[in-house]
Every structure is written in structure tokens, then in C-alpha cells.
Write a structure and sequence with these properties.
GO molecular function (chain A): transmembrane transporter activity
Order of helices and strands of chain A: HHHHHHHEEHHHHHHH
CATH topology of chain A: ABC transporter involved in vitamin B12 uptake, BtuC
Distance between the termini of chain B: 57 Å
Organism (chain A): Kribbella caucasensis
CATH superfamily of the largest domain in chain B: Response regulator
Largest interface: A-B, 67 and 54 residues
Number of helices of chain A: 14
Radius of gyration of chain B: 23 Å
Shape of chain A: globular
Helix content of chain A: over 70%
Membrane topology (chain A): Multi-pass membrane protein
Shape of chain B: globular
Number of strands of chain A: 2
Structural class of chain A: mainly alpha
Oligomer: heterodimer
Strand content of chain B: 15-25%
CATH class of the largest domain in chain B: Alpha Beta
Strand order of the largest sheet of chain B: 2-1-3-4-5-11
Order of helices and strands of chain B: HHEHEHEHEHEHEHEHEHEHEHEEH
CATH topology of the largest domain in chain B: Rossmann fold
Distance between the termini of chain A: 34 Å
Largest sheet of chain A: 2 strands, antiparallel
Strand content of chain A: under 5%
Subcellular location (chain A): Cell membrane
Number of domains of chain B: 2
Number of strands of chain B: 12
Pfam family, one (chain A): BPD_transp_2
CATH architecture of the largest domain in chain B: 3-Layer(aba) Sandwich
Chain lengths: 350, 332
């Protein structure tokens, strides 16, 4: 029996504080897998689709991604906080309808409608959040209910007020121009037209990232998503955090709704159904866990970019349109597999 | 905490009041809207009957709204109690027809987007002694189902009209934009365009429930294939997205569309839209109810076993001023 006396490791450092290489730390970030996926998909389309290589095409892809990505930022925060919002897709349309119909019916300045719509949107978010925290029913069910209710309200209210299922043209109402400048303008940089939604998207991602990583509220969001009872036990205001997150979602739904209104002048009441899943897909592809407590805002942005890029890349490549959704699904599945693989590798290397 | 919250609330309310008071618009809005007179006629003295209209229309779609308006106008005139219901899924639509049979209505108007799924239940209604007419979709199978008449457009014929018109304009490459996948009548329209268009034909599917996405997808396609010089959209709201897409992509393509709504006439007047192919949904709804009433009241049947066509009716710069005023009232 040979007695091997283990040489004790130098006790200077606690292993929990062990330094990992910068690369390993970077790879362990929630959004890294998605970033690699985005780069791979970008390269694929860059090779197979000649029109995709142009800067103007990238601008179109970024515009499309931003219309998903703005709401996806808040949906990701909410998912990190452990909740879902299935009403987000139609809430975008609700906001646009409220602003348009209010200004039209009262012949009020467009900005009045915009403000009224914001108040209504925040109220919807508050009701969602309040019902979830007070009834303790899963948010999936609560917001499923509000999803259908809003869908019905969108149609019924629009018909009640306008007599039609689409709102009237509001482009000649005072304040339309200035509101359009804020929500739906575009400008040209080096011959490429850039939509203002892209700038807003970057801003919202930056703010959300700052909140998550640098503020107490950010810690609270991770905590309530990880375990609501234990965070309540250490004094985190769980209910307020969750209600706040639902209101953040409805705020960005309102923003996207304003974009839709000012980009198209009229709003059809049936729009937006199905988009709630695109927001959730963007967050999940971007590394958020469906169970909560893990994820990032940048990841959701990359997820939205992947979705927008895949959707338009297929068109730029001129692939058979009958197979569109098959390709889209395959690309998303590929991105998720790659994401999961990279995260496992990063975790194993700890 | 509470005090500051109350103050905040008061400030928000005050701001709201100030904004509302000073926030009136000088132009547009309800005040500028003209009193639009609807279609109205007297009222029949026949006994009140109940007619069910069961369609595959998606709730909140402009087109189906106009069908309903036509049906309501006829119902008012004919002393009819109209029950409208709809479901885009054919299984659910069949159930709705069954529930109309169960409630023993005096007549049923149906759309037939998916004949094999709907014909059995339609035959059941006829067997129960309820007269049935078909509208909008089902031109090829209405005779087989045993319904009295069919009021609608021939989608292929409408597509062919669009293709012919685009060919006459000397265009070389047409893009057909389909806003929902797997709907027979939409595919028929695009195939009709293909049949008569003399140049190259391409189709694309877009997400009709998301305008920005629809716009970017069309813009991407125009970029992918710059030879496209004419676009045909299959629904009126989709034409508005296509107009933006053309501007975005810097394409020189021109545009035509199927169907009609209040936003379409100004676009034809401004030249952003070359034409709109209307199938007169108002007429479909109106005739459905009116013909059932005539059958009940006087035993009349329209069409002689052949489809009664409500379209294609082509609206362009020549006749847009005449049709436009009805569209503004929401009935065309």
C-alpha cells in the first residue's frame, strides 16, 4: 500500500474565487452562444445571397430586427424575472389603436393621443402584473387571458368607435409630423438609410443592460426570477419588481405601437397576433432561460437580430417561398443548438 | 411616499388637462369627417325571419367587415334578423354551421374555402329544409353541395384580369405577394396573374399580421431581384406596406392590388397605386341575405345554377373618383 500524501494546494486562494481566463469568462456570458450563432448565420447568407452583402440590405435587416427587438428587451427582463407576457403582441396594436382613435375622435393634437395611449399601455401592464402577483396564477395563464381580451377589445372598440375595423388616416392631424420624427423617421448615413427605431433599440438595450448589471433593481430581477420566496425572505420587494417588469413590457409595446402608427398612418385592428412568440423566441435564442433567473438584454437583442436576419436572408437568397417557414425553423433550431453547445462547453471549462 | 405619489399623480393629471386643452388639432380628425350617408331603403312587410351568415373571415379584417355591412343593409330592408359568425379554421366553421342548423334558422349563407370539410354539414342543412346560399369562396364546388346560388368573384378570373392589366402596361417581371399561406383563393389569384401575364412571374409569402415585417420582406425581395418592375398584392392593407417597401428599396416597381378599402382611392389618385381589383364584398353580403329573403318570400332563385359574379371590378384613375366616395363611407 503506497501512501500518497497529497501535497496540499497553496491555501492562499479560495477555489470559489479562482480566476478563470478572460475567454472562459466571456464564453460563459448568456449572450455569447447567440452571438456566435448570429455570426454563423450572417456568414451563411453573406456567401449564398449576393444582395444580402449590400449595406442597404443590412439596414433593412436591422430595421426588421429592431421592430421585434425593442419589445424583446423588456420581454427578456420579464423572463429573467421569471414571468411571461403573451399579451405583448396584441398590446402593440392596442397602443397604436388608442393613440390613433383618441386623436382622431377628439380632433386632438397627435401627442395627446400618444400620451393617453401610454397611460393606457402602462395600465395594461399594471393589471397583468397585479393579477399575477396577487392571484399567484402562472403569468402564462393570466396573460393568455389578457391576450384574448385585448384581441377582442382591439376589434370591438375599433368597430364601436370608427364603424370600421381599421382606424382612419391621421396623417393630417397636428403633431403627426413631429411624432413621426420621433417614432418613425429615417436618415441617411453614407448613402444608407437608417431607421430611427434602430437607435431607440440600441438605447433600450443599453439602459436594460445597465439596469441588470449595475443597479440594485437588476439584482432584484435576477433574484425574483431565481427564487421568489427566498428573495422575498431577504427583503426584495418581489411584487413591485414583477409589476414593474410587466409595465416595462407594456411601455416598449407602446413604443413599438407608436412606430407602427406613425409609419403606416392607419392601424388594422387584427394586427400583432403571433408576435408575442417572436419576442419570446428572441429572448430564448438570446440565452434567457424559460425558467427565469438567467439571461441578458444584449442576448435578446442578438436573438431578435437572428430572427430578422433569418427571415429576410431567406428572401435575399431567393429560396423557394413555399419552404420559407421550414428554413426559418431550421435556422432557429440551429442557432439554439449552437447556443446550448457553447454554453455547456463554457460551463464545463470552469 | 404617499404624499409624493399623490403629488405626482396630480401633476400628471394637470399636465394631461393642459395638453388636452391646448392640444386640439387644426386639421384632420373627426371634425373634418363628412357625414357619410349609408345605403338605406325602406323596410319589407314580410314576417321577420332569421338568417345565419357563417364565414371563414378573420375577425378584424376590413374585407369581411364590408361583407357584413352589405348583409346588414339587406337584413334591415328585408326585416331579417341576421346572425353573423366566423372562424378561419374549417373545422370550427363547420361547427358554426351545425349550430345554425340546431337553432333552426330560416336560411344560411356560407363561404366555402374548404369544400370537402364543409359540404357534409351544408347538405345536412339542406336536408333539414333550410335554404343555403354560398358567397365569396367555393365557386367550383357550390353546385355539388346543392346550395341555391353562389355570389362572389371568380378568383382565377380576377387574377387573370390583373395579369392582363400588368401586361398592357408593358411590365416585364411581376411579383405576387401572398399574405397568408395555404389559402386556395389567394393562390388562385396569383396563379391567375401568372396565366395572363406575358413576362416573368414570381411569388413571395409575407406575414400579413405584422406590417413592418411585411414591408421589410417585400423590400428585401425587390433588392434580391431588381428586375421586378410590377408588384401585385392580394389585400388592400398589404398594398400600403408594398408602397412603403418600394420607397425603401429605391425600386422603380409599380403596384396593383386586389380588394379595396378607404385608404386605397387616395393612393390611386396620387399614382402610387396603378389599380385595385375589387370583388365588391358589399354586394356579396347584400345579395346573400336578399336572395334568401326572395326565396322565402317569392320562391326566386338567382343564377340558374351558375355562379353570379360580383367581380372582378377594376378601379383605376378613370373611375376612382366615382367609387372612392363610397369607399370613404366604408361600404366599398
Amino acid at each position: 500500500m503506497s501512501q500518497t500524501v497529497a501535497t496540499p494546494a497553496p491555501p492562499a486562494r479560495d477555489e470559489r474565487l479562482g480566476r478563470r481566463s478572460a475567454l472562459a469568462r466571456l464564453l460563459a456570458r448568456p449572450e455569447m452562444g447567440a452571438l456566435v450563432g448570429a455570426i454563423v448565420i450572417y456568414i451563411v447568407f453573406f456567401i449564398v445571397a449576393a444582395p444580402f452583402r449590400e449595406a442597404t440590405s443590412l439596414s433593412t435587416v436591422l430595421y426588421q430586427s429592431s421592430t421585434y427587438g425593442i419589445v424583446a428587451v423588456a420581454v427578456a427582463l420579464l423572463m429573467i424575472g421569471g414571468e411571461f407576457d403573451l399579451s405583448a403582441g396584441v398590446a402593440v396594436t392596442s397602443s397604436a389603436l388608442v393613440a390613433s382613435m383618441f386623436s382622431y375622435q377628439f380632433t386632438a393634437n397627435m401627442w395627446v393621443g400618444v400620451v393617453v395611449s401610454l397611460v393606457v399601455a402602462l395600465a395594461i401592464g399594471f393589471v397583468n402584473g397585479y393579477l399575477v402577483v396577487k392571484t399567484a396564477i402562472p403569468s402564462f395563464l393570466v396573460t393568455l387571458g389578457t391576450f384574448f381580451m385585448l384581441r377582442g377589445l382591439n376589434l370591438a372598440m375599433t368597430k364601436q368607435v370608427t364603424g370600421n375595423v381599421a382606424t382612419n388616416d391621421v396623417s393630417n392631424i397636428d403633431g403627426f409630423g413631429s411624432a413621426q420624427n420621433v417614432f418613425a423617421s429615417q436618415f441617411t448615413v453614407g448613402g444608407v438609410s437608417i431607421r430611427i427605431t434602430l437607435l431607440w433599440w440600441i438605447l433600450f438595450v443599453a439602459v436594460a443592460t445597465w439596469v441588470l448589471l449595475r443597479t440594485r433593481v437588476g439584482n432584484w430581477i435576477y433574484a425574483v426570477g431565481g427564487s421568489a420566496p427566498s428573495s422575498r425572505a431577504v427583503g426584495v420587494p418581489v411584487n413591485r419588481v414583477k409589476i414593474g417588469l410587466f409595465m416595462a413590457v407594456s411601455f416598449l409595446c407602446w413604443f413599438t405601437g407608436m412606430h407602427t402608427l406613425f409609419a403606416f398612418n392607419t392601424v388594422q385592428s387584427g394586427l400583432g397576433v403571433g408576435n408575442e412568440f417572436i419576442y419570446i423566441v428572441a429572448a430564448v435564442v438570446g440565452g434567457c432561460l424559460l425558467t427565469g433567473g438567467y439571461g441578458s438584454a444584449i442576448g435578446a437583442a442578438i436573438g431578435a437580430f437572428i430572427f430578422g436576419m433569418a427571415q429576410l436572408g431567406i428572401v435575399y437568397a431567393g429560396w423557394n417561398p413555399d419552404w420559407f417557414y421550414f428554413f426559418l425553423g431550421a435556422l432557429l433550431l440551429g442557432a439554439i443548438l449552437l447556443n446550448t453547445y457553447i454554453r455547456r462547453r463554457a460551463e464545463a471549462s470552469r | 411616499m404617499f404624499r409624493s405619489r399623490k403629488r405626482l399623480l396630480a401633476a400628471v393629471l394637470a399636465l394631461g388637462l393642459v395638453v388636452t386643452a391646448g392640444g386640439c388639432s387644426e386639421s384632420g380628425g373627426k371634425q373634418a369627417e363628412e357625414g357619410a350617408a349609408g345605403v338605406g331603403a325602406g323596410k319589407a312587410s314580410t314576417a321577420r325571419i332569421t338568417i345565419a351568415m357563417v364565414t371563414h373571415g378573420a375577425p378584424g379584417d376590413t374585407f369581411w367587415d364590408i361583407i357584413q355591412k352589405g348583409a346588414k343593409a339587406a337584413a334591415e330592408k328585408d326585416n331579417v334578423d341576421l346572425k353573423y359568425s366566423s372562424d378561419p379554421s374549417s373545422g370550427n366553421q363547420a361547427n358554426l354551421i351545425q349550430s345554425a342548423i340546431d337553432s333552426k334558422v330560416d336560411g344560411i349563407a356560407v363561404t366555402m374555402p374548404d369544400p370537402p370539410a364543409l359540404i357534409p354539414v351544408i347538405k345536412k342543412a339542406i336536408a333539414a329544409g333550410i335554404p343555403v346560399v354560398a358567397i365569396n369562396a367555393g365557386i367550383t364546388s357550390f353546385a355539388e353541395s346543392g346550395v341555391l346560388s353562389y355570389f362572389g368573384s371568380d378568383e382565377s378570373l380576377a387574377g387573370e384580369a390583373g395579369g392582363t392589366r400588368a401586361s398592357e402596361g408593358g411590365y416585364k417581371h411581376v411579383l405576387c405577394v401572398i399574405q397568408f399561406q395555404g389559402q386556395v383563393q389567394l393562390e388562385d389569384r396569383c396563379n391567375g396573374v401568372k396565366k395572363t401575364f406575358t413576362g416573368k412571374w414570381t411569388k413571395i409569402y409575407v406575414n400579413g399580421a405584422d406590417r413592418p415585417s411585411e414591408q421589410s420582406t417585400i423590400a428585401a425581395k425587390l433588392k434580391q431581384d431588381p428586375s421586378i418592375d410590377f408588384i401585385i398584392t392580394l389585400g388592400a392593407p398589404d398594398a400600403l406596406a408594398a408602397i412603403n417597401a418600394i420607397k425603401d428599396s429605391g425600386s422603380k416597381a409599380k403596384l396593383g392590388t386586389f380588394d379595396f378599402n378607404p385608404q386605397i382611392p387616395p393612393k390611386i389618385q396620387s399614382g402610387e397605386l396603378q389599380f385595385a381589383i375589387d370583388q365588391q364584398p358589399y354586394l356579396q353580403g347584400y345579395e346573400a341575405v336578399d336572395s334568401l329573403w326572395l326565396y322565402k318570400a317569392n320562391g326566386n332563385i338567382l343564377g340558374g345554377g351558375k355562379p353570379t359574379l360580383t367581380g372582378p371590378f377594376l378601379v383605376d384613375k378613370q373611375n376612382v373618383d366615382f367609387v372612392g366616395k363610397f369607399a370613404a363611407a366604408g361600404t366599398r
